[in-house]
């Protein structure tokens, strides 16, 4: 069992090397997989932040609790940018990554996710593999000088058929504007404890297949920004946190690394919700917002928890954009 665990962990390390940056706590391969499987932006945002999915392990403000990642949407013609952002404090936001979705005049859709330089280093880009390669199986009886190297089959990704792509380009699409800000989060979000990077990476080694990914300048992947105009427009308005820059410069994000490798049978996140003893409070959104994730087929009931309730004033709601029609915020809570 110990040898098996070590083998699995070696696979994780060989697939994608650690960056030594905060981005090691949010696997963008897993984020891209989740994005493609989601039916709506609200569903994607919710599942990205649920403890049970195990995808989010970011702690940018170093309070030992996983940060809530909200998803801001921007649209320009047939191009979408979905910005993953963390409220580091009451006054600072930090963009984590941006998902670019673009449809050309022939109806072909391209999709990429680009990690923020502070968290992932320069030019960290991931995109679905565009073509498939047949599997090769070595012949054990072959005795020649040119044996076949065994390779797995790669499944082609037809981006146009991805549920969330079909949704955002359909007449049913309603823009989503998350109402959340620092200290005000949806009821389903629990302040669970950050896990060690080694255990987190072990849990996600299998997400790295089926994508081009990594640093495309000086690397081995022919990956580039498909929609440079949209990416440049995003860069002009991206959110950067002085706190995150200072923490990164002073190597403070390496405190949860250590040598924590999972023991046999320890692949799931330890359930340590609200271990800090924080009081959970629910807060109703302002008038005009409706239940989050309306129309989703799964996870429609939230664990609203106990505690007292309070209604935020109009000034308090200023931290998030308004709008969104029938896909509004759906309440929140303070932590």
Features:
single chain; 335 residues; alpha+beta; 6-stranded antiparallel sheet; 3-stranded mixed sheet; 8 helices; 16% strand
Q: How does the SSE layout of this entry go?
A:
Blueprint: H1 2-15, H2 28-37, H3 41-49, E1 69-76, E2 79-87, E3 93-103, E4 109-115, H4 117-120, E5 124-128, H5 163-168, H6 197-203, E6 211-215, H7 228-236, H8 242-249, E7 281-283, E8 309-310, E9 332-334
Parallel strand pairs: 7-8
Antiparallel strand pairs: 1-2, 2-3, 3-4, 4-5, 5-6, 7-9
Helix pairs in contact: 2-3
Quaternary structure classification = single chain
Q: Helical element count?
A: 8
Taking the alpha carbons of the first and last residues, their distance comes to: 40 Å
Tell me the β content.
15-25%
Overall average pLDDT: 73
Describe the structure in your own words:
The chain is of the alpha+beta class. The protein has helices at residues 2-15, 28-37, 41-49, 117-120, 163-168, 197-203, 228-236, 242-249; strands spanning 69-76, 79-87, 93-103, 109-115, 124-128, 211-215, 281-283, 309-310, 332-334. The protein is built from 8 helices and 9 strands. The strands form 2 sheets. A 6-stranded antiparallel sheet has the order 1-2-3-4-5-6, with helices on both faces. It has a 3-stranded mixed sheet with strand order 8-7-9, with no helix packed on it. Strand 3 and strand 4 form a beta hairpin. Helix 2 packs across helix 3. The longest helix is centred in the first third of the chain and has 14 residues, at 2-15. It starts with a helix and ends with a strand. Mean pLDDT is 73; it is low at 1-15, 217-221, 259-268 and 270-330.
């Amino acid at each position: 069992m110990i040898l098996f665990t070590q083998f699995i962990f070696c696979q994780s390390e060989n697939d994608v090397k650690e960056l030594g940056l905060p981005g090691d706590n949010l696997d963008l391969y897993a984020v891209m997989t989740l994005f493609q499987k989601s039916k709506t932006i609200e569903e994607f945002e919710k599942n990205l932040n649920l403890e049970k999915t195990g995808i989010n392990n970011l702690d940018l403000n170093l309070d030992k609790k996983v940060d809530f990642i909200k998803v801001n949407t921007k649209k320009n013609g047939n191009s979408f940018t979905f910005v993953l952002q963390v409220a580091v404090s009451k006054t600072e936001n930090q963009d984590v990554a941006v998902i670019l979705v673009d449809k050309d005049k022939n109806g072909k859709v391209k999709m990429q996710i680009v990690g923020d330089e502070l968290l992932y280093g320069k030019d960290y880009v991931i995109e679905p593999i565009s073509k498939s390669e047949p599997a090769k199986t070595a012949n054990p009886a072959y005795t020649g000088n040119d044996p076949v190297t065994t390779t797995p089959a790669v499944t082609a990704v037809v981006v146009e058929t991805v549920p969330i792509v079909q949704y955002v380009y359909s007449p049913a699409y309603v823009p989503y504007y998350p109402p959340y800000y620092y200290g005000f989060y949806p009821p389903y979000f629990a302040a669970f404890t950050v896990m060690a990077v080694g255990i987190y990476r072990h849990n996600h080694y299998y997400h790295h297949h089926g994508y081009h990914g990594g640093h495309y300048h000086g690397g081995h992947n022919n990956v580039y920004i498909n929609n440079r105009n949209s990416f440049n427009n995003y860069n002009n308005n991206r959110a950067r946190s002085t706190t995150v820059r200072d923490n990164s410069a002073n190597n403070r994000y390496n405190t949860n690394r250590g040598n924590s490798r999972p023991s046999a049978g320890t692949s799931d996140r330890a359930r340590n919700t609200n271990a800090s003893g924080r009081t959970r409070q629910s807060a109703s959104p302002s008038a005009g917002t409706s239940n989050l994730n309306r129309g989703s087929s799964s996870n429609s009931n939230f664990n609203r928890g106990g505690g007292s309730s309070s209604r935020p004033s109009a000034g308090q709601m200023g931290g998030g954009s308004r709008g969104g029609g029938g896909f509004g915020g759906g309440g929140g809570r303070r932590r």
